[in-house]
Amino acid sequence: MTQVRVSVALAILYQGDRLLMQLRDDNPAILYPGHWGLFGGHLEVGETPLEGLQRELSEEIGHCPDHLEPVGQYSDDLVIRHIFASPLTVDLSELVLGEGWDMAWVTAAAVQRGWNYSDRAGEERPLGDIHRRILGDFLT
């Protein structure tokens, strides 16, 4: 039986040298439970990666930047990840977390270290491996 790869679209949202990340729910039924990841998600039937990302950002943080620049694609046996980037021009206080456990700014040092502190969890939580790789490539 062949497994069909799913397509997702993810956003690198940044202000200066800070990157906005979502602390994923601590739910074992999802990829990277309890890890920091990028905002975005699965594409619905008929959606382009950009359309899917715009929908996901509206659902997850109540805001979608005016322009999302495609920066690459990361694929493995299970997932095709379409990556977009945009500066975030609104204050974090204007965003409403609609999905996930927490959101926070992450520094390049935290990406390199692979861990970031969560106020809501009250502890350092790991970055998802693929998200760390994507951000590491973006930062270089």
UniProtKB/TrEMBL annotation:
Domain spans labelled Nudix hydrolase:
4-132
Q: Look up the domain of life of the source.
A: Bacteria
Family to which the UniProt record says this protein belongs: Belongs to the Nudix hydrolase family.
Which molecular function terms from Gene Ontology are attached? Answer: hydrolase activity
Indicate yes or no for the key word Coiled coil.
no
Q: Which Gene3D superfamilies match?
A: Nucleoside Triphosphate Pyrophosphohydrolase
Respond yes or no to whether keyword Disulfide bond is given for this record.
no
Q: Which UniProt keywords apply?
A: Hydrolase, Magnesium, Metal-binding
Q: State the Pfam families in the record.
A: NUDIX
Which CDD domains does its entry note?
NUDIX_Hydrolase
Instruction: Identify this protein by name.
Output: NUDIX hydrolase
Cofactors needed by this protein, per the record, are: Mg(2+)
